[in-house]
Write a structure and sequence with these properties.
The chain is an alpha+beta fold. The chain has helices spanning about 70-80, 95-110, 170-175, 230-240, 310-320, 325-340, 355-360, and strands at about 5, 10-15, 15-20, 25-30, 110-115, 185-190, 195-200, 220-225, 265-270, 285-290, 300-305, 370-375. The protein has a domain at about 30-180 and about 265-375. Helices cover about 20% and strands about 15% of the residues. Helix 5 (about 310-320) runs antiparallel to helix 6 (about 325-340).
Length: about 400
């Protein structure tokens, strides 16, 4: 896992890119597909009852000059492109955490529903994890598998079951003539006569594991008539701040008034039910807590089940055991992780137990179940966050002086 982080100066070219600031910590994705590689696949439209003009704390923030009605056709297009249209979680009867959410919502008198998920599920009569027909026509040239219900959505799906941007928008862009270049890090952007100049470095795969300053590789120069910055919330802001001398007209507000994405994480322990949080996608269902605008009190929000990869079950188990049992568990995990692939039986329903099958035999106290509750923020966007892990939830932060980017 340690090699899966992005820090080329330390020889790391993994997917997880950590940004660290004075009041904010965040994990985003560094890869072809961006944050879609590690988000939880949920595509909720902003609730129309909560899509209102909103005034924040002292000083206030004016909402965007758009309405929910203005965005409807764009929601439609994005859902269709991402494969989320009419695509809620189809295996409610298979996953205990989904059933538990439904029962809890019923007892609490709350609305419960299955949100649209940008995941390729197996069709009727097919088993999870089967090949998706005619799915190799993508930028990777690799056939995809349907969702295996393995809980690995937030660490990167290795089966291509997520309808992430590399399989959707970026593949469509390449078909239309676009050129993609991975392992490239933009360092400078400059205005020139008739356009812009971009200077970037290439991080070649051969350099993985080799510590070297990111200023060492030679810079490649690219010139263009039109430049669109699409490096994400942090990346685009960072590039503009780093090159602000070349753009004297930039506002002094650039890099200020940042906050977390509004998520709060909670954990359910000692549940009387077997929840098996590692079986199924990370999020499968949603409870809606009403806002004061539609019968509730305070701000409305959603409560969603939150799963995790199967190996987390083993980590939790090892952490709660003592003595010989703990040593045996560690030995079992090391043995399984280090076994050569050719010594393992083929993974199937009969010959290689799924992580969830093993997890079902863990004590109930070890099967943690996480709920992620999303507060109603004053933004107008999708519920397609990238799971920013923040030290504060609503307090504004500033990225005018980033401290861990090289």
């Amino acid at each position: 896992m340690a090699a899966n982080f992005w820090d080329p100066s330390e020889g790391l070219q993994g997917i997880f890119d950590i940004w660290s600031f004075r009041h904010l910590e965040s994990v985003v994705a560094s890869g072809v597909g961006g944050g879609s590689l590690i988000y939880a696949n949920v595509m909720l439209r902003k609730d129309e009852h909560w899509f209102v003009r909103d005034q924040g704390p002292a000083g206030g923030y004016e909402s965007w000059p758009v309405t929910r009605e203005d965005l409807e056709p764009w929601y439609d297009r994005a859902e269709k492109m991402m494969g989320a249209t009419g695509n809620p979680y189809p295996y409610t009867d298979r996953t205990a955490k989904t059933q538990a959410m439904r029962r809890a919502a019923s007892r609490l008198g709350m609305d419960w529903f299955r949100p649209p998920l940008a995941i390729a599920f197996a069709g009727d009569g097919k088993r999870p994890g089967e090949p998706i027909p005619d799915s190799a026509d993508n930028i990777h040239g690799v056939a995809r598998l349907s969702c295996r219900l393995c809980g690995e959505c937030d660490i990167g799906c290795n089966d291509g079951a997520k309808n992430s941007l590399d399989f959707t928008y970026l593949t469509a862009a390449v078909r239309a003539g676009a050129q993609l270049q991975d392992r490239s890090e933009v360092k400078e952007i400059l205005p020139i006569d008739g356009g812009y100049e971009v200077r970037y470095v290439r991080h070649h795969a051969d350099n993985e594991g080799i510590r070297r300053g990111t200023g060492v590789p030679p810079k490649t120069v690219l010139r263009c008539r039109t430049l669109v910055l699409g490096a994400g919330t942090f990346g685009s802001t960072f590039l503009l701040l780093r090159n602000r001398k070349a753009f004297p007209g930039l506002s002094p507000a650039l890099g200020t008034r940042f906050c977390g994405n509004g998520d709060l994480l909670g954990f359910v322990l000692d549940s009387p039910d077997k929840l098996n949080a590692s079986y199924g996608p990370v999020i499968t269902s949603t409870m809606r807590v009403p806002d004061e605008l539609d019968g509730g009190t305070g701000r409305g929000y959603y409560i969603q089940d939150g799963g995790y990869p199967g190996f987390v079950d083993w980590l939790v188990e090892a952490a709660t055991l003592t003595g010989p049992a703990k040593r045996a568990a560690r030995f079992a995990v090391r043995t399984d992780a280090s076994s050569p692939a050719d010594r393992r039986p083929a993974r199937s329903a009969t010959s290689w137990p799924h992580w969830s099958d093993r997890a079902s035999r863990l004590p109930a106290r070890c099967r943690c179940w996480a709920w992620a509750a999303m507060s109603r923020m004053a933004d107008c966007g999708w519920r397609t966050d990238i799971w920013s892990w923040t030290g504060v939830t609503r307090a504004p932060g500033s990225i005018s002086r980033p401290c861990r980017r090289r």
